[in-house]
Write a structure and sequence with these properties.
This protein is mostly helical and 187 residues long. The chain has one domain. The protein has eight helices and four strands. The strands form two sheets. It has a two-stranded parallel ribbon. It has a two-stranded antiparallel sheet with strand order 2-3.
Length: 187
């Protein structure tokens, strides 16, 4: 690779830092923002706290049962199950507690996002930290000039594993749940 490309590549192409061991990161858009918004929704007088806690526990259980750690990919879960479970649980629990139908939307949001985050990501974190996703997983480098330059052959050591809580891409389960669960709960 020419010297000018080695100089220009870090400016043009952002790359995660090279690591030697496992790194556990917390995704801002997939974990912190939903957590902060859920706390805000819990402070509203119209949010049924007992229904929210019960619905969240239901989603946590379902998400934990369906979540599958996949080597080289991360934790996967069927896309539409958490929003459907959160919406049905919120709708039924709010109706049983005598609340108005529009009170089911914040309950569904909180239960869906936090339930998926806890059930799929956090409850699988011990398994990830034991290294079950590292063995057999696709590593970086291996012929890719960008990763070889930044973390492979002749450079710094290549990363072993980076796990991101709440981070599975732009259109991940927590994002989809935060959109669909409140809409489905009030239908």
């Amino acid at each position: 690779m020419p010297a000018w490309m080695r100089w220009m590549l870090p400016i043009v192409h952002y790359h995660p830092p090279a690591v030697v061991d496992q790194v556990v990161a917390i995704n801002v858009g997939g974990a912190i923002v939903p957590l902060v918004f859920s706390i805000y929704l819990l402070t509203l007088a119209s949010t049924k706290v007992v229904a929210t806690l019960a619905a969240t526990v239901i989603v946590v259980i379902i998400a934990k049962l369906l979540a599958r750690p996949m080597p080289g990919v991360g934790v996967t879960i069927p896309t539409f199950i958490p929003p459907l479970v959160a919406a049905v649980a919120a709708h039924v629990l709010v109706q049983v507690m005598g609340g108005p139908l529009d009170a089911a939307a914040p309950v569904a949001y909180i239960a869906g996002t936090l339930g998926t985050l806890i059930g799929a990501d956090l409850l699988n974190l011990p398994r990830i930290l034991r290294g079950s996703l590292v063995q057999g997983g696709a590593g970086r480098g291996g012929g890719d000039p960008i990763w070889d330059y930044f973390g492979g052959e002749g450079g710094r050591p290549a990363p072993k594993f980076i796990a991101s809580i709440g981070g599975a891409g732009i259109f991940d389960g927590i994002f989809l749940t935060s959109i669909l669960a409140p809409i489905l709960a009030v239908l």
